[in-house]
Amino acid sequence: MTDPVQLLASWREAPRVRRLNEHPVATSAKYVLCWLQQALRAIDNPVIDAAVRLGNAWGLPVLVYHGVREDYPYASDRLHRFILGASRDLERDCAARGLRCVNFVDRAAKREKGLVYRLAADAAAVVLEDQPAFVAQWQAERFAARADAAVLAVNAACVVPPLALEQGVRTTSAFRRRHQAAREEWYGWTDEAATERPYAGKLPYTPDLLADLSDADLDALVAECAIDHALPAPAMFPATRAEVAVRLQRLQDEVLPAYADARRLASRPEGASTLSPYLHFGMVGPREIVAVVEQADIPATERSKFLDELLTWREWFHYKARSLRVPERYDRVPAWAQRELAEHAEDPRPEQEPMRALLLGETADETWNACQKQYLVDGWMHNNLRMYWAKRIIAMTPSPEAGWATACYLNDRLSLDGRDPSTYGNLAWAFGDAQPGYRRLPIFGLVPTRVDTTLRKVNGDDWFARAAARAGPALDVPDEVPVDPYLTGELPLPMVKG
Q: Buried (b) or exposed (e) across 74-100, using 16+ Cβ within 10 A?
């Protein structure tokens, strides 16, 4: 059978593809396995499309697989319910494309050891996601090293594949120039049509048929899992493709016409797209959003501003993450900023807060509490608040390293769009991944800080008082500042991606 990389070489999307091992294609196989972890959509999904192209060439069906374990970091009702809602629609939409999608939900009543390896044993090759952060990256690398099958990773998160751009770009402005020159040729897509019938053969387990489940059924399934049940799924973010369609329509009709000004108003979340949780879990792809933006009858300034946020900044953080061994580690902060923060680590910190106050949004800073309550209650924070929230954590924790670990912990545990190259990139910006300031300050040194004067002026004191007073869930609070799990060995260090 022809080598998969050679088969995909002439494909428009070929720059998205990386081979993770050198195993040959299995000659006696039942299907091509498409293992999804985070790109949970059947539309505009290059991972699925790559698998379909291989299956068509080899005369094999494609089997799409998605599994949810109980033991990923910060597993909770909030994350589990969103993931399973996405997976339910993934199964339904794959069926509409003529593909079989099977799911597995790990729980006491149903355990399956090494399931993805057993599924791979019957595969000609395995196609999975090329994700540069959190669990997906090290699972992909570990799987490719241990599996007997040929394994390919495909980027599904970006409009412009990072490998299609010049490597080693060091500044946002340089990246913007290169990205803007390339992006239009990557707009648009065609979902690959499978020429083989859906796989109907035997499987090494009994799948969970999520497509047949109601919302109440999904809630009951989540309740069976040994996860954090104190953190509920937020009403603000229904995990359905129908909700994605509603938000895309609202983006076109209401958000884009006044985006440049309205995006500053945290008091009006309808001024933001609120699509980041759906982007993080791959329920919508950036090209689908771009198509809406391009069709909108809006001033060029509004279109340019939105696309700069979606494409320049988001894809810059994805691009940078590829060159980092672990994008969520403190050592990604520039050396100059680490030095500045270290030199002021012993400065008095009169605004230091205990972890309980930080987690529950009960600090002495009402503005910061309003920010934190969005994470705690809604599972999302307005971007104009995130910058203040992250900067202030440096002064509210005992050391810069503790501040970074705390910011990552709050972001990853509470936010539906946490655990992402974009959110880690934003945190790094807050800790100094930008230009030094002009005035050395206590605690921060030359790392710029941020005050809430403009936030208060734009949104109003009354809004911050109401936002800070919202009741949140009662959560377990760790006794100490969380420690980077990669430093303790709880998570294995992945390889730097080529």
A: bbbbbbbbbbbbbbbbbbebbeebebb
